[in-house]
Design a protein that fits this description.
Number of strands: 10
Strand order of the largest sheet: 3-2-1-4-5
Number of helices: 11
Shape: globular
Helix content: 40-55%
Bound molecules: 5'-O-[(R)-(carboxyoxy)(hydroxy)phosphoryl]adenosine, zinc ion
Strand content: 15-25%
Radius of gyration: 20 Å
């Protein structure tokens, strides 16, 4: 079965072809990020206009790379939530048109849940149930996954998302956008124990809060460098200390969720899951706690359409379908 996935929830226009839910035949991602950089974040109007211009070409490339024709698609899965309204609409309208023209079933998919599926792409299946941590630019969620249509939210961020905190701290440090990869790069040269940052407490132990640590970085700069950009060595220490604290918090809460739900398998996904330090520390902690942890390849950690196709396929097999009245949700 050939599944065509389409993803346009943020700055990217992505299409992928999947065979039977895990074999990725192609995955194409075109990002408009360079047009947003000078604004220090995503400008929704620019994103949707670029998506409108590129979607046909991106889908064509994905089909070509997979060696199939559009008529060979057996299912169309498209991100229908959450995301930028204009951007989501480009993908949804495109997917609905193809579904209508070819009479192929259509399914709207949740982007955050689709991130969980990154670990299933080009890999052996992971036994259910498991705990999933999704750490992206817009979400920081802990889920209990009993099945692909039985995903319960256990914890979420009360303020900034984890990736958002990386982006904001990078901005404070005068690094580029997106901030996650920039922080990771300079943190390699820094001392992660140099500065004692901490994440704010939360009422529910499985919730997250990252806005306090971002402000703490800002105050640290004000107090020690008169809010000016510090020298590279000091910057590396700040980045490493920030990253370490965030990673430790994510690990502590993920392990707590595993203990609370008596589950021994953990699946991590979302853009921040591409971070090497995070992966290294999760693997170490999982080993110490006799938990099996799964990560997508780095490519499938960040936004892509293969995860949308795969997650949609699992729901399709359970009987889920969307009509042509599919809209952003
Ligand atoms: O999942 P994603 O590609 O898009 C959303 O759904 O939001 O995640 C993007 C986020 C951005 O905030 C970016 O800074 C962060 O993931 N990110 C990273 C790394 N690569 C991307 N954060 C930390 N370390 C990285 N290597
Ligand atoms: Zn994402």
């Amino acid at each position: 079965m050939n599944i065509l996935g389409i993803e346009t929830s943020c700055d990217e226009t992505a299409a992928a072809v999947l065979k039977n839910g895990s074999e990725v035949l192609s995955s194409v991602v075109s990002s408009s990020i360079k047009f947003h950089r000078k604004y220090g974040g995503i400008v929704p109007e620019i994103a949707s206009r670029m998506q409108l211009e590129s979607i046909t070409q991106v889908v064509d490339s994905a089909l070509k790379e997979a060696g199939i024709k559009l008529k060979d698609a057996d299912l169309i899965c498209v991100t229908s939530r959450p995301g930028l309204a204009g951007s989501l609409l480009v993908g949804i309208c495109f997917a609905k048109s193809v579904s209508f023209a070819l009479g192929v079933p259509l399914l709207g998919v949740d982007h955050v849940c689709a991130h969980i599926y990154g670990s299933f792409l080009n890999k052996k299946s992971i036994p259910l149930p498991f705990i999933a941590l999704v750490v992206s630019g817009g979400h920081t969620n802990l889920f209990s996954v009993e099945d692909f249509d039985e995903i319960k939210l256990l914890g979420f961020t009360q303020d900034d998302a984890c990736g958002e905190a990386f982006d904001k701290v990078a901005k404070i440090l005068g690094l580029g956008y997106p901030g996650g990869p920039a922080i990771e790069k300079i943190a390699v040269k820094g001392n992660p124990r140099k500065i004692k940052f901490r994440c704010s407490g939360t009422q529910s132990p499985l919730n997250f809060s990252f806005s306090g640590i971002k402000t703490a970085v800002l105050y640290y700069l004000k107090e020690n460098f008169a809010a000016r950009c510090p020298m590279p060595d000091a910057r590396a220490d700040i980045a490493a200390s920030f990253q370490e604290t965030v990673v430790d918090t994510l690990i502590k809460k993920s392990l707590l969720a595993c203990r609370m739900k008596k589950v021994k398998t953990l699946v991590v996904g979302g853009g921040v899951a591409a971070n090497n330090r995070l992966r290294e520390k999760f693997f170490q902690a999982a080993k110490e706690n006799k938990i099996e942890v799964h990560f997508p390849s780095k490519y499938f950690s960040i936004d892509n359409a293969a995860m949308v196709a795969g997650f949609g396929y699992r729901l399709f097999r359970k009987g889920y379908r969307s009509g042509l009245d599919l809209n952003l949700q």
